[in-house]
Design brief:
5 strands, 21% strand, 151 residues, 5 helices, five-stranded parallel β-sheet, alpha/beta
């Protein structure tokens, strides 16, 4: 099955990428993998404090991905796979792609204006030729109707 990998965070563009990926998955008989990244924490000499910070970050990421999954199920009927991983975004994404041969595309969206976002900048810039799958970049300025028409 063709799986579209989408990274979810608190930015409006991540919901744009998710909508596009979900619509493509429905039309192609595929699926969606939602990834929430938990940034690595800096070492704190007090282990309990560091563990609490990491737990809170993970809980926050899980809440984001659960909300996104609920929206996806409600709007498209697709049941996405959900992954929450701690680490640097590009490295985690590459590991996921390597581990799952069904992932057929990485779907990211740009910010509506200004800088495109760190993952888009990374994968479409310095690492543009290094992915083993297509990178789909959805313009962040698209509204729902345009996304639905284009996907």
């Amino acid at each position: 099955m063709r799986i579209y990998l989408v990274v979810i965070d608190e930015t409006p563009e991540s919901s744009i990428a998710l909508r596009f990926a979900a619509r493509r998955a429905v039309k192609t008989g595929g699926g969606v993998e939602i990834l929430a990244l938990v940034p690595p924490t800096e070492f704190t000499p007090f282990g309990g404090v560091q563990a609490t910070i990491e737990d809170e970050a993970r809980d926050h990421a899980e809440a984001l991905v659960t909300g996104a999954a609920g929206t996806l199920i409600q709007e498209s009927g697709l049941r996405p796979s959900i992954t929450v991983r701690q680490g640097e975004g590009p490295k985690v994404i590459r590991e996921m792609i390597s581990a799952n041969p069904d992932i057929a595309a990485l779907v990211l969206a740009t910010a509506a204006s200004g800088a495109p976002g760190p993952l888009v900048a990374h994968f479409a810039g310095q690492d543009a030729g290094g992915l083993p799958i297509p990178l789909m970049i959805v313009p962040g300025s698209l509204d729902r109707e345009a996304i639905d028409r284009l996907s």
